Amino acid sequence: MTQKLTWLIAHHPAHLFIRTAEAFNAELNKRIPGQFEIEILSFKEYLEQRGDIPELAIRPAAVKGLEEGEATSTEDGAFVASDWKDVQTKWKAFFNGIRDKKIHLSQTQVTVIGSHLFQKFKTLDLPFLFRDHDHVSDTLDGPIGDRLLNEMGDATGVRGLGYTYSGGYRIIGSNEEINSLSDLADLEMVTTPNTQMTFRNIAKDAKGRVFKSIETNGDDAVTGAVETTYLRFTGKNILKTEHSMFMTSILVGDEFFNELNEEQQNAFRESAKVVAKLERKWSLEDAEKYEVEAESKGIKITQISQEETAQLQEAAPSDYEFLYSKEPAAQDLVNEIKNH
User: Fold this and answer.
1) Over 90: is that where the pLDDT of 118 sits?
2) pTM of the entire structure?
3) Is 225 in the same domain as 89?
């Protein structure tokens, strides 16, 4: 008998995550035909059809005017997250839903996993951790990456199956004119938790924070900057910095996974590995297409200079030391990755 599973789409742009889920479903059915049927639901669809995790109505703190936000139901009290506690509430409920088998599979950001589930995952967000995309694949598709996924499963009840991008390299975006790192000094800037020390160091007057409010100038044009990716950015000016990978991971509930027989577990693992590589390839193709089309869409992309890259690299150790102070085990993982 075919078992019906739920794959929850946790982020926008939704189509990036839907194609991953669809590819996984197709790959799984090649290996174990007819055993599983995967239903793919957005947060909005899940809330409207089931409603048993109401916290999913909390919207993440995307920067309006610079990032594409998440669509949720407007009939269930959905609201914009106003502080860190709101965000914690949402992701705690999300991960509990995976543990409780309400959600069987999903794909979420490494930043979210590291902040709300398994702190060691924060390591993967660190600036200049990976030399290039080949280094990502060589490291995370092998024993180092597998061990980290299994450690998370054993510690949290939510197991990782593979590493995806859904964005590739992070960029710095703004509606203000930004032609160099020095232009960030006068702007409020939203950063991820594990790069904020770096940007505070290179732009002494900037206040890089997570979920920091940015003011508009009255016509919805945001006066500030955000660390994001091409495919989430909705503004007009970009600094191409290539400092950090915007990574995600395919997740499965540990209790559900342990109920599978050996053949099924292998099929899930193998399917996730194939799809993860494919998704990373798609993300790089998406980035190339974005760059080709940017000028015609009125978007200016400026590659930072080698001198500015060196400036960022010199500032990056502050984020490493901050993480080590909170998660000492991250230092061994960093050394393994950098030496691989």
Assistant:
1) yes
2) 0.92
3) no
